[in-house]
Amino acid sequence: MFTGLVEGLVFQPTRRLDWTPADAALAYEDVWLTTSDRVRIHGWWVPAAGADAPVLLFCHGNAGNIGDRVHNVKLLHDAGIAVLIFDYRGYGRSEGKPTEPGAYRDARAAWDWLVRERGVPAKRVSLFGRSLGGAVAIELATQVEAHRLVVESSFTSIADMAAVAMPVVPRAVVPRIFDSITRIGRVTCPVLVLHGTEDELVPFAMGRKLFDACHAPKRFVPIEGAGHNDTVDVGGRPYVECIRSFVC
């Protein structure tokens, strides 16, 4: 029961989509995915020019929905990267209620759509996870043979986050959900970890700790002066180029 209470604090979904890729002049396709437990999930497929363009499976953070990530998708698209972004269950137009196991199933359904239904070779598909999405992408990377894994502004575990945000709460009572620090050592593809040096939510040291737990080949890129939610704006063109060069 306590796990459900913590999940209720972690997930902060909104239903209304304030923006779509059309608002950024992007051609896109509405995608409907069915998970292994029969939940209907919504996403957007934003193709890029060229049959061999790299593809990024985008796992977003804990708040809002995919409509809040249109700007990010636009920057990636303009860099020549095709993007599949999806909403976890309970977010946007997706059915259901968000849970940790559900988020993992949602991401796997998105992968299966790309590789099985869309026919994109796995060697062209990289995983991108930001904040909470980093934990989702890390788990997915332990299940599939992705080309690359990009983890941005993410944490080691929710238990570690609770120790930072609520130090008076006994650590023993916090469920060890989204335990990325344990899982990331099982990832076999190359890993890029990005983290803002001034992240006020997820300590910079957590990003470094995740990186240290990765197997080589790996790369750590600090985004100087960036907080938790402004890595794209602070990082600017070098930020996008760093991702593009890594996944190509």
Q: Tell me the number of structural domains.
A: 1
Helix content: 25-40%
- Outline the biggest β-sheet: 8 strands, mixed
CATH superfamily: Alpha/Beta hydrolase fold, catalytic domain
Task: Pick out the low-confidence regions.
Answer: none
Q: What would you report as the Rg, rounded to the nearest angstrom?
A: 17 Å
CATH architecture: 3-Layer(aba) Sandwich
Question: Would you give the CATH topology?
Answer: Rossmann fold
SSE pattern, N- to C-terminal: HEEEEEHEHEHEHHEHEH
Strand segment tally: 10
CATH class: Alpha Beta
| Physical arrangement of strands within the biggest beta sheet | 2-3-6-4-7-8-9-10
Query: If helices are DSSP runs of H or I spanning 4 or more residues, what is the number of helices?
Result: 8
Task: Note the gap between the termini.
Answer: 43 Å
Briefly note the structural class of the backbone: alpha/beta
Mean pLDDT: 95
Outline type: globular
Beta-strand content estimate: 15-25%
